[in-house]
Amino acid sequence: MFLTHQYLDQLTEDTRHAVLGNVGTMIAFRLGTKDAKVFANEFYPVLDVEDFINLPRFYFYINYLLMELRLRHLVQRYKYCRLRGTRI
Questions:
Q1: Domain ranges for the chain
Q2: Which of 15, 22, 43, 76 has the smallest number of Cβ neighbours within 10 A?
Q3: β-strand pairing of 25-28 with 86-87
């Protein structure tokens, strides 16, 4: 299942806590201050609020679970190609 939103306040508090407590993979692009505080706690201790706020365009942090091993704080660049003028 994918749950994507522009910011966390779009979720009810109960839903937000349930998702953050059970998610296997988290991807975060540049964030605003309020959401950066939440994600800084999830990516602790390596990343902090400033890391999320100052992330360059098209880059993201990923925190994921791979075969029961938590891999954290990977930085990737978003790549896209154009197909008839559309990003895919």
A1: 8-87
A2: 22
A3: unpaired
